[in-house]
Design goal:
Elements (H helix, E strand, L loop, with lengths): L33 H4 L10 H8 L4 H11 L10 H17 L4 H6 L1
The structure holds iron/sulfur cluster.
The site of iron/sulfur cluster has 15 residues, from helix 2 and helix 3.
């Protein structure tokens, strides 16, 4: 299982500042089974309970941005790892389109 934890259970010091993690105090997933969010490799899970918790969570946006920033596995901010890969891909394409990703532009 991943060492990642969710919501208020995330280890302190994973990030830059206390303010960056204040959203964890309001996590709807506090106390939920981590297996719902991080199914063991090789097991099948629809992650339905996790995604349902995220739907009603008031800190979905900062949670999603955290997972995108740190490339976290599992369910974060109402998205699966696969969905976040797509979001990163779309954002990268948008940055290139807007000329904001110098490294990728130089490699072209
Ligand atoms: S959005 Fe989902 S994973 Fe993130 S804190 Fe809320 S319930 Fe937990």
């Amino acid at each position: 299982m991943s060492t990642s934890t969710i919501g208020g259970l995330a280890p302190a010091g994973h990030g830059n500042s206390m303010n960056e993690h204040e959203w964890r105090d309001k996590a709807a997933c506090k106390g939920m089974d981590a297996e719902e969010f991080f199914p063991a490799r090789g097991t099948y899970s629809t992650q339905t309970l996790a995604l349902r918790a995220c739907e009603a969570c008031e800190v979905k946006e900062p949670c999603l941005e955290f997972a995108l920033k740190f490339n976290e596995p599992g369910v974060w901010g109402g998205t699966s790892s696969r969905q976040r890969r797509q979001i990163r891909k779309e954002r990268r394409a948008e940055r290139i389109k807007n000329g904001k990703n110098k490294r990728l532009i130089e490699l072209k």
